Amino acid sequence: MKVFPLWHISHQNEAGPNDETIHLDDGGVFIDEQDGDDVKLLGIYSSEAAAAERARRARLLPGFVDEPDCFQIGEYDLDGDHWTEGFVRVPV
Questions:
Q1: Fewest Cβ atoms closer than 10 Å to its Cβ: which of 22, 55, 76, 92?
Q2: Contact 21, 12 (CB under 8 A)
Q3: CA angle 65, 24, 91 (to 5 degrees)
Q4: Which residues contact 51 (CB under 8 A, 6 or more apart)?
Q5: Residue limits of the DUF7336 domain (predicted)?
Q6: What is the pTM of this model?
């Protein structure tokens, strides 16, 4: 079974030329949490259509209305391992 998480990225990054905020790149919605982007999980849905419908409704709400193209729908197998390795902390 597949599930479809819906994310919204509120951009605060300064990753572009002249420290401009980047919202989209060739891969879709740009995300740089280390540079201040705030990622919110709106929900996990049983279909891509249900996730898209939730994004449509969320676009009308405060905050989301300011970045209506910064939603991202994922696709994952339920009960599947998606992070299979450890991680390291990078001191700032």
A1: 92
A2: yes
A3: 100
A4: 4, 5, 6, 43, 45, 73
A5: 37-87
A6: 0.77
